[in-house]
Amino acid sequence: MAMKLVKLWSMLSMPLILGACAIPQTVEIGSTEAQVIAARGSPTQRYRVGNEELLEYRHGPYGQKTYMARIGPDGKLISFQQVLTDEMFATIKIGAFTKEDVLHTVGAPSDRAYFPLSQLEVWSYPYRQYEVWDSFMHVGFDHGGIVRKMETTPDIRFRNDLFGPR
Hints:
Blueprint: H1 2-22, H2 33-40, E1 45-49, E2 52-59, E3 65-71, E4 77-82, H3 86-90, H4 99-106, E5 111-115, E6 120-129, E7 133-141, E8 147-154, H5 160-163
Antiparallel strand pairs: 1-2, 2-3, 3-4, 5-6, 6-7, 7-8
């Protein structure tokens, strides 16, 4: 009986133990770039903005979180934040932001599409609108790569009535 309980406990606890190993470690402001990479792993993208380096940590394509680590010219972490938020999308200026500006603000999209009728290239970002609703933010660019439209839609991948319970 005791052996069965030990076996049952080990089977039930193994996913928790293994899952804990996969949780990225937190990073502190002032950490070196090497410490950030040691804690969070290799970034999914890197961007150079002036004399700073941005390290993107995207959790996609279904992921609703992308973290951006901003490394200063001294090689130390200035900020580390989740960028797929209403607040960050609100900083994107229609008619002014370029594709590069959007990449530096919210990272790479989970999907890209071209719509010939509107003549827009649309980048889509899954996120939790107001931290409540499973949504997509769609950012549309004209042929010159300038943001011309932004639109939020429901993320139907999470609708229970379409695909069954989550």
